[in-house]
């Protein structure tokens, strides 16, 4: 009697369902996924199936900044006709490809104002006195746009700010949200007193999978638990962004409130006097901090005290959960700017103003006249010649998503040569499987 040895088990014996789980959960690097897809047709078919999501990929930043949009502040440059401009990071990039001339004419022939940007999308508005503004979201690289119209109950709301955010981990025309922070004069409130609320506009174009989030404005309004009241919408001012939250300062009582763009959750708190200093709207900004272990920086505040620029960081202690503000850096502006082109000794007799900020720098000007300079927050170095110091404006980086795809082009010709050698039944099933794969090229290839 002949004893036959059992055949050894190979990777081909693993069912597709289990192989799907292995690729998603155990290949922790996107490079490993691409390599697996390049060596095996079956692995490539599973890795590139539409609907596959790789959690580890979302921790990597695949975006590439190709330029910045500058939205000029009319209070500093009232004679400037063009309110926004695109400045590429390289001379090889033609700025004309990122013009906003494709947008329709604004209501009443008024120009669109750039109010926010995220990834490859821009949010523009036409302000209407006493009414909710007209909004449009556009993608300059593809010259597409979406008009956002308010629902009837929002018509008379005052908009404190509108901000873009993403859905499905990617910001694109097929998937985005707009969070609007509103001032609502609710019934029963005193004359001139309003309550702060927020509304979210969801946009999801096919073929994205349907979710419980429907397109259009949410039917509910988010309100702070104890209520945030304003005496006039002009008493609240934008105070920066940090880690997915938008901050506003309130001049009436010196408090600060924030809104999470992803959940519309409100927070209302007081900044310590040694952190905030003056209650003026242009003397402090929230910027993003670094995620430092074991006590991550939750936020960073840049404040101007007289002729000093001070940086504070907000940390959460992992041991007891307490939150404290730590002084990080101080820079005396008269001494730091002396010697720069155009500097005058009369500058900084009063508190300077913050024009714009990012996680890396802050742009300031003395009150005496518009003389822009920037301070690098990491090194506290002052510079005057950078392009961001030419116009008093908010700056929005324009980024394209360069997420890698799991379909190697080098084997396409070989696959299609084998197609004509297959039996008819096998050929039909193979073609049906290939049609379900995600064969989209990256935006870099399209450009």
Secondary structure: elements and pairs:
Blueprint: H1 16-26, H2 30-39, H3 41-47, E1 63-72, E2 84-88, E3 113-118, E4 121-126, E5 134-139, E6 144-148, E7 158-166, E8 175-184, E9 193-204, E10 216-217, E11 222-223, E12 229-231, E13 236-242, E14 245-250, E15 255-260, E16 266-270, H4 273-276, E17 284-287, E18 297-305, E19 308-316, E20 323-332, H5 333-337, E21 353-357, E22 361-365, E23 373-376, E24 382-383, E25 393-401, H6 412-419, H7 424-435, H8 443-446
Helix pairs in contact: 2-3
Structure in words:
This is F-box domain-containing protein. The structure is a single chain. With 447 residues, the protein is mainly β. The protein has eight helices and 25 strands. Among the domains are: 13-58 and 404-446, no CATH class; 100-270, no CATH class. Helices cover 14% and strands 35% of the residues. The strands form six sheets. Strands 7, 8, 9, 10, 11 and 12 form a six-stranded antiparallel β-sheet that branches. A hairpin with a 2-residue loop joins strand 18 (297-305) and strand 19. The longest helix is centred in the last third of the chain and has 12 residues, at 424-435. It is globular.
State the end-to-end distance. 68 Å
**What are the segments in which pLDDT stays under 50 over at least 5 consecutive residues?**
207-212, 406-423, 430-447
Kindly state the percentage of residues in helix: 10-25%
Number of helices: 8
Tally of strands: 25
What does the largest sheet look like? 6 strands, antiparallel
Measured by DSSP, the beta-strand proportion falls in 35-45%
Q: Classify the secondary structure makeup into a structural class.
A: mainly beta
Silhouette = globular
Mean pLDDT, nearest integer? 75
Radius of gyration: 27 Å
